[in-house]
């Protein structure tokens, strides 16, 4: 039988203790912030009916769905995100209490092309508000994302706000419905990434006739409606009868008239789609600081005869953000922002971190007022939410700490009694260290100090604390370690003699140990990944 070692699935990660601990700590910080805002915790399954995501998630998510038939023949998927599950769970509740504010955390799965910060299995923590009316809800949810980052100590982020409702409004105005509408809504994101010309080409190849069998085209644009009503099917039939002089080949008059009407509908639909694509191009150019972008947006909507209400709401949201403590200079507007998920209906937002390169998005969310009904809810329920990617939060925090702007979590200390007779004071010292928040592992092996140094260094402890009855009571001697056990060089400060246990935390914070190429198991979680970790 083959005994070759098995590799983990591409795009997944084994989290060794340090990474697992960092992720847990990040989860706790986020969940604590959500709890402080009155959100309740829910847990939802990893396995869901695939239909939950096929109904409204959009191509971006569906094309990356892990789905399969289970042994009972049901089509199941591994959840690609948490929102749809949370809404499904809320619908299943006997009597919804609105507003319902909840959060969930757990692994999600997407068949992505893996890279640094982009995985096929990753952790999300997300909040949802069901029964979320108006701009106050919009602003509170954006502010919750931003202030959670503040609490974590992540500072170099930007909040970008858009509104997919504006494009939705134009499509309604033009009478564009069904698949064509869905494609156009998705094109906003494509235009942002690949340019409007690429979108035109893609759109033409996906929808060549711009007319689907059985799909009605209710054109509401006034010019187009006038054109159609002046050419009713009756009038067309008369025209066909007159011009064909009875020579219709094998077709009946009704056939020919219907085909001709369909062609005219197609032409008007094509005109409507062209107009929508032009609008998408213009909308994508509206971005920048809130004041400038809002002025440009007002001019654009006016030119297209659209209601400026979404812009008034955006402007109010930005004012409210200030009241929630989000700094104005962090906020940008980008009306080309649409996010990959098709269920958004209005305000959408993302939070990016400047140090994370291509996968810089820490958080994404927005308003999804249709989803509750689409997933089978009996009433319409307005809703809004967002999700953080926990791995990316850890990367962002590490990037800031490396650059010296974050706070330091003290490294773990290996506490060693100098002689077997020092066991009692070593136990007291370890306990006192833990009380002040220092991770302290006590050496209970009874080995000689020299052996303890080698062991502690190999295990990745950054400091050794030697405790002896010969020193003053309640003190210890701190000694930095390197992975190979050699005391570190002159660049590392070492207290000259014994220091009071009560000042150890302060001392460790002020003198973080150098980063380690070893497992770093007991070293601060604030350091960057090793090259090997970054590759995996
Ligand atoms: P979304 O559900 O697409 O709105 O994503 C919410 C957040 O999850 C993003 O802002 C990222 O922080 C994170 N995220 C999305 N996709 C990935 C991925 N493939 N790997 C790691 N994190 C991801």
Q: Within the largest sheet, what's the order of strands?
A: 1-5-6-12-11-10-7-9-8
Mean pLDDT: 83
Helicity, as a percent range: 40-55%
The CATH architecture of the largest domain can be named as: 2-Layer Sandwich
Name of the level-1 CATH class of the largest domain: Alpha Beta
CATH superfamily of the largest domain: Bira Bifunctional Protein, Domain 2
Largest sheet: 9 strands, mixed
First-last Cα distance:
28 Å
Query: Which small molecules are bound?
Result: adenosine monophosphate
CATH topology of the largest domain, which one? BirA Bifunctional Protein, domain 2
How many DSSP E strands? 17
Domain count, please report it: 3
- As residue ranges, the low-confidence spans are 210-231, 516-520, 525-536
Please count the helical segments: 19
**Approximate strand percentage:** 15-25%
Radius of gyration: 31 Å
Broad shape: elongated
Derived from helix and strand composition plus strand pairing, the structural class reads alpha+beta
Please outline what is shown here.
This protein has 536 residues and is of the alpha+beta class.
Describe the SSE topology:
Elements: H1 17-36, E1 40-41, E2 47-49, H2 50-54, H3 59-62, E3 66-69, E4 75-78, H4 83-92, E5 100-109, E6 121-130, H5 134-152, E7 157-163, H6 165-173, H7 178-194, H8 196-206, H9 222-229, H10 233-244, H11 253-284, E8 287-288, H12 290-303, H13 309-323, E9 331-334, E10 347-353, E11 361-367, H14 371-374, E12 383-389, H15 390-402, E13 413-417, H16 423-435, E14 440-442, H17 449-458, E15 463-467, E16 475-480, E17 499-500, H18 504-510, H19 531-535
Parallel strand pairs: 1-5, 7-9, 13-14, 13-15
Antiparallel strand pairs: 2-4, 3-4, 5-6, 6-12, 7-10, 8-9, 10-11, 11-12, 15-16, 16-17
Bound molecules: adenosine monophosphate.
């Amino acid at each position: 039988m083959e005994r070759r070692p098995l590799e983990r699935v591409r795009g997944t990660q084994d989290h060794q203790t340090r990474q697992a601990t960092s992720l847990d700590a990040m989860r706790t910080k986020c969940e604590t912030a959500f709890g402080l805002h009155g959100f309740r915790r829910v847990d939802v399954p990893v396995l869901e009916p695939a239909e939950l995501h096929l109904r409204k998630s959009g191509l971006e998510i569906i094309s990356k769905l892990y789905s399969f038939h289970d042994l009972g023949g049901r089509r199941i998927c591994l959840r690609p995100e948490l929102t749809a599950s949370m809404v499904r769970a809320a619908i299943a509740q006997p009597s919804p209490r609105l507003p319902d504010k909840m959060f969930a955390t757990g692994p999600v799965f997407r068949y992505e092309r893996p890279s640094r910060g982009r995985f096929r299995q990753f952790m999300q923590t997300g909040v949802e508000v069901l029964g979320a009316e108006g701009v106050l809800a919009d602003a509170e949810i954006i502010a919750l994302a931003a202030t959670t980052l503040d609490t974590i100590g992540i500072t170099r982020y930007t909040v970008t706000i858009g509104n997919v409702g504006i494009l939705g409004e134009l499509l309604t105005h033009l009478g564009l419905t069904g698949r064509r509408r869905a494609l156009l809504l998705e094109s906003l994101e494509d235009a942002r990434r690949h340019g409007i010309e690429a979108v035109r080409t893609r759109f033409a190849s996906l929808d060549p006739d711009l007319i689907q069998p059985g799909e009605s085209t209710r054109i509401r644009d006034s010019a187009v409606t006038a054109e159609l009503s002046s050419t009713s099917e009756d009038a067309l039939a008369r025209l066909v009868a007159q011009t064909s002089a009875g020579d219709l080949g094998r077709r009946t008059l009704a056939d020919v008239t219907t085909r001709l009407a369909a062609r005219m509908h197609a032409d008007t639909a094509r005109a409507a789609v062209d107009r929508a694509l032009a609008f998408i191009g213009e909308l994508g150019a509206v971005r920048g600081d809130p004041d400038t972008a809002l002025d440009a947006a007002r001019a654009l909507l006016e030119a297209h005869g659209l209601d400026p209400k979404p812009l008034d709401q955006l402007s109010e949201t930005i004012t409210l953000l200030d009241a929630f403590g989000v700094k104005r200079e962090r906020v940008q507007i980008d009306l080309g922002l649409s996010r990959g998920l098709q269920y958004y209906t209005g305000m959408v937002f993302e939070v990016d971190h400047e140090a994370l390169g291509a996968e810089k998005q820490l958080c994404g969310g927005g308003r999804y007022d249709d989803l509750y009904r689409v997933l089978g809810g009996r009433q319409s329920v307005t809703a809004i939410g967002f999700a953080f990617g926990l791995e990316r939060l850890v990367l962002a925090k590490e990037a800031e700490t490396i650059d010296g702007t974050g706070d330091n979590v003290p490294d773990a200390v290996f506490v060693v009694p100098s002689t077997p007779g020092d066991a009692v004071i070593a136990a007291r010292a370890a306990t006192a260290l833990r009380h002040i928040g220092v991770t302290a592992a006590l050496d209970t092996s009874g080995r000689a100090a020299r052996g303890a140094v080698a062991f502690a260094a190999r295990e990745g402890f950054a400091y050794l604390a030697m405790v002896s009855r010969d020193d003053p009571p309640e003190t210890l001697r701190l000694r930095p370690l390197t992975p190979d056990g050699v005391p570190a060089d002159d660049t590392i400060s070492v207290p000259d003699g014994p220091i009071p246990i009560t000042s150890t935390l302060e001392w460790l914070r002020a003198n973080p140990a150098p980063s380690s190429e070893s497992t770093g198991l007991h070293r601060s979680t604030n350091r960057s990944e090793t090259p090997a970790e970054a590759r995996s």
